[in-house]
Known about the structure:
The structure is a single chain. This protein is α/β, with parallel strands linked by helices. It has one domain (about 1-125): 3-Layer(aba) Sandwich (Rossmann fold). The protein has helices at about 1-5, 15-30, 40-50, 65-85, 115-125, and strands at about 10-15, 35, 55-60, 90-95, 105-110. Strand 3, helix 4 (about 65-85) and strand 4 form a beta-alpha-beta unit. The mean pLDDT is about 85.
Amino acid sequence: MTCRRVQTTILLIGTYAEGHAIGAAGLRRQGYQVLTAANGPEANALGQRLGLEHLDLVILDLPDTHPSQMREGYTLLQRWGAQAPHLPFMLISDGPLPVRLEPPVVWWLAKPLTLDTLLVVVRDILGS
């Protein structure tokens, strides 16, 4: 099972550095390869360099308190969803849940978020 996870690549996008460091470390301890990007432009650069087909999950933190970052995140979601419809997204936000989730979004999690909850949802999405 560990071999499968080592080949599983998760991209964690967001500006909350301390929280993402904890999440990334926890996911790495479980055997996942975790890449991080602070914002949409960094994520786009990673996606172009690696190719979206090499990502297995995108975790996107949408800060409700920063509307421009929220728009940037939704723009990335729409663009990548069109380019790689197989690529699942988990959204994390301190804002309200949308009326309904549209693919490629498979989970919406509210902050504050525990590491245990994050790990359970990641396993559910990836089927591991």
